[in-house]
Amino acid sequence: MKFLRHFAARIVGHAIRIFARAITAVRADWQGIEPVPRQRVYFANHTSNGDMPMIWASLPPALRREVRPVAAADYWLKNKLRAFVGPEVFNCVLVDRRPEVKDKPMDKIIAALDEGSSLIIFPEGNRNMTDDPLLPFKAGLYNMGVARPDVDLVPTWVANLNTIMPKGEVIPLPLICTVTFGAPIHVEDGETKDAFLKRAANALASLAPEVQS
Amino acid sequence: MSNTTVDILLLAFGSFGILIALTFLGEVLRARQEPGTQNPVLETYMTRIQSWWGMVAFVGTALLVGKLGVMVLFAFCSFAALREFLTLTTKAQADHISLALAFFVVLPLQYVFVGMGWTGMYTVFIPVYAFLLLPIVSALRGNSEKFLIRVAETQWGLMIAVFCVSHVPALINLEITANSDRAVLMIAFLVMVVQFGDLLEYFFGRRIGRRKIAPGLSPKTWEGVTCGVLAAMLTGALLSWITPFGLFGAVALAGAASLVGMLGSLVFAAIKRDRGVKDWSHLIPGQGGFVDQLDSVIFAAPIFYHLVQFFYG
Fold first, then answer.
1. What residue of A is the nearest CA neighbor of B100?
2. How far is CA B187 from CA A98, B159, B179, B290, in A?
3. Residue spans per domain, chain B
4. Which of A142, A181, B10, B273 has its CA 20 to 30 A from that of B88?
């Protein structure tokens, strides 16, 4: 049974990747960093539920196998299908955002890093529904950077997904999606949390392609 | 094998012969380089030749399969071109449904109408029905911000990427060849004269081009375009045996199609410049996107279609 579930997860993973490619021709644009298997935390902007699968699909196979998206448990455990896709297909690190829960999200994240996995995180915490490019970052990214200073923190900009699959729409539009990976950053000695988060947000926002319209 | 099949194979092998010569030339130039150095112009040239191999193989196979192959190939080209175009246009969430209709309803229907040979429908479907109905769908969502820009740009995308591109396979419905299996050769004729003209326009423009046609927009020169159109006319003459136009007609149509196509690519250059992009996408290595590759064919196809219909209909 376990083998079958694992096999099914691989097949579903391929199907999701092929679907994402066919619809959006998703492409990874590596700016200032190479697609090599190093331990990294990819931190990305968040406008659509399609963001995480899109980053996941754009990574080369060797990197995709090592990467674990950090995602909300309340979303991915809502029904049986999601409970299969989230933890088993995408191999998510599920964290509970409710304040009354005892186990701390950061403990799970650090544990995943200590197992050698790379991570995908959305430091804004929620989907950005505003016209601003980014919402203020939560502290998680800073805490990871302080706890595991050797890990590269890679800004990752997902372009266009808010038009491809906006909140409340059912049919995805086939528009071209580019995932841009920028130069990695680290928490510097003596850098305050606010200064670092600001620097991280600027590094991410600077990757957004400038298209006049 | 029918005569048409033999002709298509001849054209395909002729094209392969040219590509073998060009690949050979590139490899000789590569071999003459100092070891360890790289010439970016040569590498771009080789990437383009590789893409050309793929394109000749795809178009040749589609023509051999016949009508269905041609429809599927150009429907896919339309999809890819529309995706590139609408990625760069102004849109709002209020347009989500009308854009989804453009991709998943208007585009397939247009190709169904072309495949059925329903001339009265495929010549008006996008300019009339889609033109009037899609803005209604957008308006129903009640967002007026940039409304005219949004609907106008969407319609422009549909006209270019679906209406114009679908006029390439629509050539098989032209009355002059409609009832023979030689109809698919009209497609080979148009695509080959336009693409050869472009290739030589690029070559001569680099070599002897001086006066720019639209400075600040495109590197195209009067000298390059003149040589390109003449090359297209020569190609038309060499290919006149696959057409029913006779030598003079083939030369004149080839020249007209090539000229419109080259000037049409200036229009695309203006759009790209306005949106601040160099290429429409990255999907064809060395060439950019589908729109970059098809731009002159897109402009030439409807003009060629209607000229033939007018003079030979």
1. A173
2. 63, 20, 15, 18
3. 3-312
4. A181
